[in-house]
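Structure (tokenized):
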């Protein structure tokens, strides 16, 4: 579910992205069996990479995904994996797509669009601005416990 923080052994994170990419020349080939293959393989590859698919929409000439990517996986690494593995599978399954009028060995366009999806910017700004005050309060409370004083009777 979008909006929830996730935990790994040494990190708490919320790294949600909206990513869009297209077939080369924006050819309208993502329909029928090709669409089903692309949808299924995106889900499988994301699971393999530890990426949660929040929303996925394969249109006839582009793919939209909203996903949560763990910090150890970069967006470019994920897209390289998705686009590379999907291209190989699509060409193996549908060899006609390798022939003219299509594109030879390149199924996807080189680039992609990505934007972060997350907490409202104003909320983050307030958090950062007032965090120092919160840290000082916590420090004062910790000092009250006298953690670094010798135990009484020593």
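Design, position by position:
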């Amino acid at each position: 579910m979008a909006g929830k923080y996730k935990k790994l052994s040494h990190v708490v994170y919320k790294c949600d992205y909206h990513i869009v990419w297209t077939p080369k020349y924006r050819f309208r080939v993502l329909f029928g069996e090709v669409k089903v293959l692309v949808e299924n393989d995106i889900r499988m590859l994301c699971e393999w990479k530890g990426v949660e698919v929040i929303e996925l929409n394969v249109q006839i000439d582009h793919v939209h995904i909203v996903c949560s990517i763990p910090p150890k996986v970069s967006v470019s690494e994920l897209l390289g994996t998705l686009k590379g593995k999907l291209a190989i599978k699509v060409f193996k399954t549908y060899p006609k797509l390798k022939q003219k009028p299509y594109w030879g060995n390149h199924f996807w366009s080189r680039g992609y669009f990505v934007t972060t999806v997350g907490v409202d910017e104003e909320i983050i700004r307030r958090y950062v601005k007032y965090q120092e005050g919160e840290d000082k309060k916590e420090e004062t409370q910790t000092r009250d416990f006298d953690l670094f004083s010798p135990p009484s009777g020593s």
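Reviewer-requested clarification: Residues 4 and 66 are 14 Å apart (CA to CA). The longest helix spans residues 121-144.
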